[in-house]
Amino acid sequence: MLNYIKAELYRNFNRVYFWGYTFSIAAFTLLINILLKISNVSETVISLAELIEISTHMLTLPVFLIPAIVEMVTAEENKNLTSKNILSFGLSRNKFVLSKIIVSIILSTIAAVVILTLFFGSGTLLFGIGKSFSTSLVINFVKRLLISTLLWISSIAICTFLALIIKNTTTFAFIYAIIFVTFSKIIKLLSSFVSDKFQYIYDILISTQINKLSAPELTNPTLISAALIGIVYTIVFTVLTMLYVKNKEIK
């Protein structure tokens, strides 16, 4: 399993796709900072402290960047029917699934580090740290970021599940996006017009938990709840993916 993870990382590290995708997003964040710098707005209100505060309201964005990573790691292989070659070397199906999820997590983490480093690094150079910058601000943001990571990992597990059951890469990415964009809204409407019991479902959705982490006031119960929900989603969809792959005829 470890050798397969290393092989998958090597394969993706040596592709233009991964680095092109990562640095394209990183370059976009740099462009945003440059545009803010040359505008009148940056002279009065923008600094590293403000960028950190703005970032707390953008914790949902990584959820929609995940499909491209999963497509590189899992969907492309599923589409090209090359999984059988890997399993023929003795790798169990459960380890195959775990490896795919782990590799996607590692690649997503690397991409996130590159993007955030360029975003905050360029922000510091262009605007300075700002008068409101403090250790408590950084700690608060890091708490949100770490717990959000557990929810993003659960999104990777869901995305991997969809990538393995749907061969068409465009379709799987579209369905994934629809789930996160519309499902919460549908459940919210049902809780308002059909039954308030739907609110229980709404409260445990990944998107709902991420939105709670973006709230101005952050409490320990909120952090614990979000962390547990992220872990549960990851376990459930990892197991579901294993069961699907175990019973699937891989050609």
TrEMBL record:
The keyword Transmembrane applies. It comes from the Bacteria. The keyword Transmembrane helix applies. The chain crosses the membrane at residues 16-36, 56-75, 96-121, 141-166, 173-194, 223-245. Keywords: Membrane, Transmembrane, Transmembrane helix. This is ABC transporter permease subunit.
